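Risk mitigation, structural track. In case the binding assays with EPU fail to produce interpretable data, a predicted complex structure has been prepared as a fallback.
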Amino acid sequence: MNIIRNQSLKSYNTFGIDVKADFFYELNSVQELNKISSSEVFQNEELLIISGGSNLLLTKNFKGFVLKNNILGIELIKEDENDVLLKVGAGEDWHELVMYAVENNWGGIENLSLIPGNAGTAPMQNIGAYGVELKDTFVCLEAFEIASGEVHSFSNNDCCFGYRESIFKNTHKGKYIITNITIKLSKKPLINIKYGDIKNELHKLNITNPSIRDVSNAVIKIRKSKLPDPKEIGNSGSFFKNPVITKAKLEQLLKTHPDIVKYPLDENKFKIAAGWLIEKAGWKGKTFDNYGVHKKQALVLVNYGGAKGNDINKLSELIIKDINAKFGIRLEKEVNVI
Ligand code: EPU
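Fallback model:
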C-alpha cells in the first residue's frame, strides 16, 4: 500500500483547484479498503473521500488523508422480462454508466446523461436533471462504516432522499464510504420528456416518438449548450440549490417581479429558479480575474484557470448576500465546501 504524501488534488476536482493533500491513496477494491482502514494514517488523520470530485470546492490544503474511490465494476445481478438490476462500483463514471444503459435500451437514467461525477457520489446528493432524480431508479447501496469497518446496506428509504439531499449529506456525513450502488432499469421504459427544454429539442429534430437514445442525445445537446465542460472550464455544475418559497412570499415577489421563474411543488410551495434570481441581480457572466459566474448559466460558478477555492467561495457568499438583500430569499450552496 503506497500512501502518497503531498499530492496535488488539481486533477481530482472538477473545479480544478490546485491544493494539496497531506496523504493520498487511490482505492481500487473493498479488499484494499479493509487493509487501508487498519493503517495509522486512516485511523489518525481527518478523512476526505473523493470520487468524481464533481461536487466539491476545495478552499485550502487538506491536512489529512484523501481517499480517491476508484472501485469499478458493473454487474447485472437480476433480470426478468421487465427490468434489470445493475450493481455498480462507486468509482464508475456516471455518464459512462448512462451510455451503457442507453446502448442496451434500458430506461430510467437517460435524462441524467452527461452529469459529471461517479456512481458512488450520485446518491450523496440524489443527482437530478430534466425531471428525473437518482432516487427514481435507485434500489440500494453498500457502504463501509468508517468507525466500525462494517459494511452496511442502505435501501432507497434508508437514504432519505430529497432535492439534492440524502442521509449522507446530513446525519451520516463523513461516516461512510459508499462502495457500490444498485439501480433498477426498465426494459419497457417510459420516456420522460415533461421538461420543456427536452420537448423543444426533440421538436427541432422532428422526433415525435423518441427512443431512450433520442432523449439522451437531446439532454446532451441541451447541457452542452448551457453548461461548461469541466475539462475546459473548471466548475461543479449548479453551485446553489433552487430555493423553495411559500405562496405568500411568491405573491409578494410577483408584485415587483412578474416574470420570476417558478415551479409549483404543492398548494403552498414553489421552487424558484436560482439562475433567474442571480441573473436578475446582475451577476450572470461577471468575471473577476480568473473566476466568475458562467456566461450562459448563472447558477454555475467557474474557474477559468488558477483560481483559488477561497475566492470562489467568497464570490458565492457575496451572491447569497445580494440575493437576500434584493429578493429576501436565502440561497443554499449545493456544492460541498471544504
Ligand atoms: N434561468 C435564468 N438565467 C440563468 C439560468 C436559468 O433566467 O442564468 C432560468 C430560465 O428561465 C430557465 C430556468 O431558470 O428556463 C431553469 O434553468 P435550467 O433549465 O438551466 O435549470 P436550473 O433550474 O437552473 C436545474 C438543476 C441542474 C439541472 C437542470 C435541468 C439545480 C440546482 N440545478 O438547474 O442541475 O441540470 O435543472 O434539470 O437543481 C446540477 O445540479 O449541478 C445541475 C446542473
